[in-house]
Design brief:
With 138 residues, the chain is α+β, with helices and mostly antiparallel strands. Helices cover 17% and strands 42% of the residues. The chain has one domain: STM4215-like. The protein is built from two helices and nine strands. Strands 3, 5, 6, 7, 8 and 9 form a six-stranded mixed beta sheet that branches. The chain has a three-stranded antiparallel beta sheet with strand order 2-1-4, with no helix packed on it. A hairpin with a 7-residue loop joins strand 8 and strand 9 (117-130). The chain is elongated, with a radius of gyration of 18 Å.
C-alpha cells in the first residue's frame, strides 16, 4: 500500500464522503468532519454533527529482520465517532473500510441511549526494504 498522511486522508475522504458529518465553525461555516490529529485536537469552538473521522498524523512503526532485508510495518490509526446513537451510518462506514482495507483490525463499542458509538481501525502498511548498513570507515 505505502501511504503517506495525504494519501491516507484522501482515501478516507473518498470512501466516506457521503457519510461524514460536519463541523460547524464559530463563524457558522460548515466543513466535513474529518480531522488529522497531530499535536492538537479539534479546536474547542467547533461543533460536530453526525459522524466524525479522526486520523493520526503519524503512523506507528515497527521493523522485523529478514535475510538481508527488513520488513517495515506502519500502522495507520483511524477513529470514527458517531454522536447520534440512533444513526446506522457507522455500520455502513465500517463495511466500506473493511472492504477497502481487508487486513485492518477493528475495535469498537456499541452505543447506549446515553453514549456515542466509535470504531477504531488499525490499518497496516507494509514495505520490504534492504537492510541499512553503516558506511565503512577506514
Amino acid at each position: 500500500m505505502l501511504m503517506d498522511i495525504l494519501q491516507f486522508r484522501n482515501t478516507i475522504t473518498e470512501l466516506l464522503a457521503d457519510l461524514l458529518g460536519s463541523y460547524t465553525l464559530p463563524n457558522g461555516k460548515k466543513v466535513p468532519a474529518l480531522w488529522v490529529d497531530g499535536r492538537n485536537g479539534v479546536p474547542k469552538g467547533w461543533k460536530v454533527n453526525g459522524m466524525e473521522a479522526s486520523l493520526r498524523q503519524y503512523p506507528a512503526m515497527r521493523s522485523r529482520p529478514l535475510m538481508g532485508m527488513v520488513e517495515m510495518r506502519k500502522a495507520w490509526e483511524l477513529v470514527l465517532s458517531q454522536y447520534d446513537p440512533s444513526s446506522e451510518i457507522l455500520e455502513s462506514a465500517i463495511d466500506r473500510l473493511l472492504r477497502h482495507f481487508p487486513d485492518a483490525a477493528l475495535t469498537g463499542y456499541p452505543a447506549s441511549d446515553r453514549e456515542y458509538q466509535y470504531a477504531r481501525f488499525i490499518i497496516p502498511d507494509i514495505e520490504i526494504k534492504t537492510q541499512y548498513k553503516r558506511p565503512e570507515t577506514t
